[in-house]
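hiii, so i know i said id send this last week but things got crazy w the move. better late than never?? heres the sequnce for the chain we talked about at the cafe, plus the structure i predicted for it. fair warning i was half asleep when i ran it
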Amino acid sequence: MFEEASEVFDNMFKSSFPLTFIVFIPAVLILVSPLPAEAAHEFTVYRMQQYDLQGQPYGTRNAILNTEARTVEAEVLSRRCVIMRLADFSYDKYQKALRQSAGAVVITLPKNMSAMPQDIVQQFMELEPEMLATETIVPVYFAMEDDELLSIYTQTLTSSSSQGTLSAAEVLLHTATANGFQMVTSGAQSKAISDWAITSLEGRLAGVGGEDLPTIVMVAHYDSFGVAPWLSYGADSNGSGVSMLLELARLFSKLYTYKRTHAGYNLLFFVSGGGKFNYQGTKRWLEDNLDHTDSSLLQDNVAFVLCLDTLGNGDSMHLHVSKPPKEGTPQYSLLKELEMVVSSQYPEVKFSMVHKKINLADDMLAWEHERFGIRRLPAFTLSHLPSHRLAQRYSIMDVRSVSPSSRHGAGEPPAGPHVDVKKLSRNTKVVAEALARVIYNLTEKGAPGDLQIFTEQMV
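okay and structure toks below
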């Protein structure tokens, strides 16, 4: 169902605005063994985010690493590289390393995340924003575990734990004379960029029947986000939203090809950048279209803006609004058509409207539709998440899927957020059918709620 729809995107543009950001290049960490017979082991590490947004610094401020390895069980962590496994990670242990001025922190992640208990994954997702908000000069890296790295961790853990039985004098002597694994970063270092260019895509399908046609705008931001950029896949948030938008563009481009089904609505598709950074790409796009041009579809008759965000799983769909739509408006029509399609065709789905006012005092907006609401455009966001605060929107744990055979229990869901392709396909069908009913005014024409526009022949 999800085919490429690039043919409908006839406009591309780049916009730039002040945003200090760091370009991250995966570094190579070299572990040098104290034993002559042991060879050095190299493995890739991924640095924690570092950026400044609206004058507020986030993440680690340093990248250089050349120090001896320890685990958090050691008595003395100062100027040591502290290795932590995700399975044993806690914020208290992490803070202990920072308080003792560790030389660096390396957090190792299992290759098979689905093997991790759900509570550990959930705890780490909730801690990621706190880790980023705690500005530190201690370099923080992440690495994927392999057999050699696990062996090094086990040896380091044994050495670190034994220090707990030593006297204070023995600990100092051991610290001065011990020959542990030396951890050294090599390769290109990260460079700061103060003027980051954000690329967004815009495409449109022109309606037929007059000049002042209403316009429906469909929006999805394409960014992924997590504590480490190179490990941030953003499969559900917001790869699922972009996939849905592209599929909607493909489906409606077919309808708009034929004279009989060419509707009296303009359809505007917008894939935005900078979504995870307070929707900066959308902000600039609105400024370009509303403040810096004499003619724009956004300045004319906008029926509504539908933002698609995190729709790749779950049996719930929530329409997040800043103002409840008034009866008789196109926004109200979409709300009712979504309710009708769900109740008539997909009764397993629970649909609801969530009302939350825009809080301009907050540093970060909750949903993308609030960018449009600030400019007095009628907008809402559709998501399977009931709240914008859920940690999976900003996590390196947001991956596409895992195979059933890799799950740690029969019938159990995989740990962490993931994308269920069947549910993403179903949710796309719900949105497509509801939009079609609005565009072709099917309810007022007496069409039954279970009428399907996008049949097998259509898709």
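btw The chain has a mean pLDDT of 85. thought thatd interest u
miss u guys!!
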